[in-house]
Design brief:
Layout: H1 8-32, H2 37-82, H3 96-152, H4 157-188, E1 197-200, H5 201-210, H6 213-218, E2 222-226, E3 232-235, H7 237-253, E4 260-267, E5 271-278, H8 310-320, E6 324-329, E7 335-342
Parallel strand pairs: 2-4
Antiparallel strand pairs: 1-3, 4-5, 5-7, 6-7
Helix pairs in contact: 1-2, 2-3, 3-4, 4-8, 5-7, 7-8
C-alpha cells in the first residue's frame, strides 16, 4: 500500500495493536524464562528496541505526511491566489487533513464568488460611465457650440434669444440626466429605503397622472382612468408614483397626437394589477426584453425627448417592493405595461 495514502489514524491504530501484541509476547516469554535472569534482560532490551523502532517509524511517517500536506497546502493556496481550479477533494473523511482541505475548498468558493462579484461590479461601473459619457456628450457639445457662436460672432437680438432658449433646453436635459442618475444610484446603493405603508393606490396614481396631463393635452391625447378608490395596499407612495409617472410619460411620448391612453386597476388575491395601455407605435417582440435596460432607446425614436432611464428606474422601484412589470405589445397596435404590486398586509 502506498504510504502517502495511509492516514495517521490508521497508522496509530496499527502501531497500538502491534505494541499490544508485542507486550503480551514479551510478558509470556518472561514467565517462560523466569529462571534465567539474562534472558529477561535480553527480552527487555529487545522490547525497548522494538518500541523505539516503532516510534522512529511513526515519526518518519508523520513527518512525511506533514511534508506532503504542507506542499499540498502551499500549492492549493498558490492556486487560489492565481484563480486556478479549486483544491482536489480528499476521501479520508475522518482525517484531520481532510477537515482542513474541506475548509480550504469552502474558502476558495467564497473567494471565487467575491472575485466574480467584484469583476461584475467593475464591468457594470465601466458600462455606467460609458453610458453617462455618451448621454452627456451631445448636450455638452451643443452648449459649447452655442456659447462659441455667441462669443465669436455678432448675433442679432432675436437670434440670441433662440440660442439662449436652445441652451436652456440642453441645460434642462443635463439636469434631468443628473437627477435621474442620482435617483438610480441612491436606490441601487440602498441610500434610500422604501417606506411601504398601507394607503390607497388611487392617490398615488393621481399624483403620477398629474405629471403627464399637460403634455397629453398638448398632443390632444385622451387619458381615461378606471381605479376604484377603495383599493389599498402597502407601498411607498412617492417612489411608486415616480415609477407610474415614468411609464405614463413614455406612453405620452410615443403615442401620436389624438391617441388614447387607458389606465385600469384590478385587485387580485395576491397582487394589484395596474394596466397602462397606449395606442402608440408598439414594441417589437425581440426588443421587449431589453427596453428596461439602463439608457436603452430604439434607433427610430432618437428624435423623441428622453434619455432611456425611465423604464429602468420604474422596474427597480417596483422590484424593490416585491412586484414586477410585464409588457404586452405589437408593432402598430400600441403597448400595455402591466404593473403587479403584492398585496401583503403591513401595519
Amino acid at each position: 500500500m502506498n504510504g502517502s495514502k495511509l492516514s495517521v489514524n490508521h497508522v496509530c491504530a496499527a502501531g497500538t495493536a502491534f505494541l499490544g501484541v508485542l507486550s503480551i509476547v514479551t510478558i509470556i516469554s518472561a514467565f517462560l524464562f523466569a529462571q534465567n535472569t539474562t534472558a529477561i534482560v535480553w527480552l527487555c532490551l529487545l522490547f525497548i528496541l522494538l518500541v523505539f523502532s516503532c516510534v522512529v517509524l511513526f515519526v518518519v511517517f508523520l513527518r512525511r505526511k506533514l511534508v506532503l500536506f504542507s506542499d499540498n497546502l502551499c500549492r492549493t493556496i498558490d492556486d487560489m491566489l492565481n484563480g486556478a481550479a479549486p483544491p482536489p477533494q480528499m476521501h479520508e473523511e475522518e482525517n484531520l487533513f481532510f477537515k482542513i482541505n474541506y475548509r480550504l475548498a469552502h474558502l476558495y468558493d467564497v473567494l471565487r464568488e467575491n472575485r466574480e462579484s467584484i469583476a461584475k461590479e467593475r464591468a457594470d461601473l465601466q458600462e455606467l460611465i460609458s453610458d453617462i459619457s455618451h448621454q452627456v456628450k451631445t448636450p455638452v457639445s451643443n452648449l459649447k457650440m452655442i456659447n462659441a457662436t455667441l462669443l465669436e460672432q455678432p448675433v442679432p437680438e432675436e437670434k440670441q434669444r433662440e440660442f439662449l432658449q436652445a441652451s436652456s433646453g440642453q441645460l434642462e436635459k443635463l439636469d434631468f440626466l443628473m437627477q435621474s442618475m442620482i435617483k438610480t444610484s441612491r436606490l441601487e446603493t440602498g441610500v434610500i429605503s422604501l417606506d411601504r405603508r398601507m394607503q390607497p393606490l388611487y392617490d398615488t396614481l393621481a399624483a403620477a397622472l398629474g405629471g403627464i396631463l399637460l403634455n397629453a393635452e398638448r398632443k390632444k391625447i385622451h387619458v381615461s382612468v378606471d381605479c376604484p378608490e377603495d383599493i389599498a395596499l402597502a407601498h411607498d407612495r412617492k417612489w411608486t408614483s415616480e415609477a407610474m409617472f415614468n411609464i405614463l410619460d413614455n406612453a405620452v411620448k410615443y403615442t401620436p397626437a389624438g391617441g388614447d391612453i387607458q389606465v385600469s386597476v384590478q385587485s387580485w388575491e395576491f397582487h394589484v394589477k395596474i394596466d397602462i395601455t397606449d395606442s402608440g407605435k408598439g414594441i417589437a417582440e425581440s426588443r421587449q426584453g431589453i427596453i428596461f435596460k439602463r439608457f436603452y432607446r430604439e434607433e427610430e425614436v432618437h428624435d423623441v425627448e428622453g434619455i432611456g432611464i425611465g423604464l429602468y428606474l420604474a422596474r427597480e422601484i417596483i422590484t424593490m417592493q416585491g412586484g414586477y412589470i410585464k409588457v404586452t405589445s405589437k408593432v402598430g397596435y400600441g403597448s400595455t405595461f402591466s404593473v403587479f404590486l403584492p398585496v401583503d398586509r403591513i401595519y
